Amino acid sequence: MLIATKQSMLTASAFLVCICALAGCGHRVQAKAAPAVTAPATPASAPAPVEAASDAGSVPFWARDKEGKLIPPHDAHATPASAAPPGLYVAMGDSITFGVGVTQNCHAFPIYPVDIEEYCPDGTSYAILTAKALRKAGVAGHFMNLGIGGAHVERVISDELPYLPSDATLITLYIGTNDSRAVRNPADSVAQVVSKFESHFDQLLGMIHARAPHARIVLINFPNEKYLAATYHVADDVLPRYDTSSQTLDAFIDSHYPAYAVADTICNPASYDDSLLYKGGVHPNDAGAAILSETLVKVLLAKNPPPPPSACQWFDAPSAVAPGGRK
Fold first, then answer.
1. Is the pLDDT of residue 143 over 50?
2. Which of 5, 88, 230, 256 has the fewest CB atoms within 10 Å, counting from its CB?
3. Quick one: fold of 80-301?
4. Which helix (H) or strand (E) holds 216?
5. CB 326 within 8 Å of CB 251
6. Residue in 55, 76, 56, 81 with CA at minimum distance from that of residue 64
7. Tens digits of residue pLDDT in 179-221
8. What CA–CA distance (Å, rounded) separates 154 from 199?
9. DSSP 3-state percent helix, strand, coil across the chain (nearest 5)
């Protein structure tokens, strides 16, 4: 009987070890390490650029803790105390803000603010590079990246705004590319797309002010999609719609100056340089992100940021802009 009992206990112990390993608690069960195997040396290769998420409608990665558990908005942490300069910079936007197309965007940003030099010192997205520049300048020592791939302005309201800390001191908003692309649907007129964007954009700005009342908000307009490599395969009859929607939405964004500083991309030649864009021709690669960050940082650190350009070869200040847009 004693032998049978010991055998049963051994069997049960082995079963529990297996279950624990499957459940991811292997750190609690110290298994004997396997002999080390020396693999042939292989040349180091550059990290692959970050791909766009295929599940754009799923819960954002930053809404989960390190174990993958969902964190409700009301559990968002306040800015932690550290040796970093005071101030919290929050980047809001779509996949370009998230960092698609660059080699390092540190996917696992926690829901709470981080010291970028400790958490992602090698990051190459425009938002991370901007955070590092602001930290170096002593403007903001902590950073949060709320960008979501595929986001349009309504999704910024529903999925990013709830995680915005009330003590944010500097916020950048880069949104409009996906909203502009709604004109691909023939059922949506340019006027409808523009009207919807204008309404939600101003609603978002008001909600950001209400949630983070002491934050300075800086806007970023977006390139004219008619001239981006990603639109080369678009039917000729759709390109004029892209052109009109991009220019009209950007005119509306720019019309918020001088109440809000605006970092310009629609008139920046770098926005249309294929060598600075990741495959697909929309998202900046490492070099493109560095240029975008440099443009943004100049606006963020300027005492009196200049107005965005009134016209250029990609933007001719359309006269038929919706009410509130720039004439």
1. yes
2. 5
3. Rossmann fold (3.40.50)
4. strand 216-220
5. yes
6. 76
7. 999 998 888 899 999 999 999 999 999 999 999 999 999 999 9
8. 10
9. 40, 10, 50
